[in-house]
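S., here's the first fold you wanted:
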Amino acid sequence: MIDRADHCMNLCKIKFYNSERFFNSDEARKVLFRRERFREKTKTRKTLFKTLTSTYGAKENGSYLGAFDNQLTLDALFE
């Protein structure tokens, strides 16, 4: 979790995969459920962004686009 000064938070899912990841609808629902559970437990009113951090990123299919707002890959970290 990255708590930002602009009243937003990035909730990060950090995973190591050997290749580009494909997310299905069940996995997307889990990500959305966890975000809402976080909001309930913390009672935050901040804007929550779901961020995937992984080795090679994810294929941008409908499930991925519904679950994550952005992604960060190794390429971005070492440019």
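And the second, which I think is the more interesting of the pair:
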Amino acid sequence: MELAPRRHGADSPDLPALHALIHSCFAPLNARIDPPSSVASLSLERLAADAEAGEAWSLGEPPLACAILTPAPNHLYIGKIAVAPAARRSGLAQRLLALAEERARALDKPALLLQSRVELTENHALFRKAGFRETERTTHEGFDRPTSITFAKSLVPDMTKSSD
């Protein structure tokens, strides 16, 4: 599926569609994850602020997939990855991850970082296939077990490997 990526600012007329896509993709996950996703409290105003502080990207018109990229000192954080159910398994999530890598390189960030809930093993497989590795497991307040996994992808060449 060939869809050009589109960047959205805080005043983008497509922001409500991104907001709806994120909510529709994350809401069903609450039956699988504990604690429930914080996306339930994501307002349109908060999404606009996130787009202003970082970068909101989508694929398709109307949006079929989207992600929010947030620059940090040593990485670019990928959040709110959402792909419409009808567009899943068509490579859109991989395209968003590749776009994030392009943006990280353009912003001179040495790594990509993202988080996923422990229960979402199909997402973990997608991230590993894209070159991410698990770096940490964290626990939400009030839980006695890990609830989230941090994945990272280094964009700096590994100088310890021999080229012979």
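Why I say that: The domain at 5-154 is CATH 3.40.630.30 (Aminopeptidase). The beta strands are 5-8, 55-59, 65-72, 75-83, 111-117, 133-138, 148-154.

Talk tomorrow,
H.
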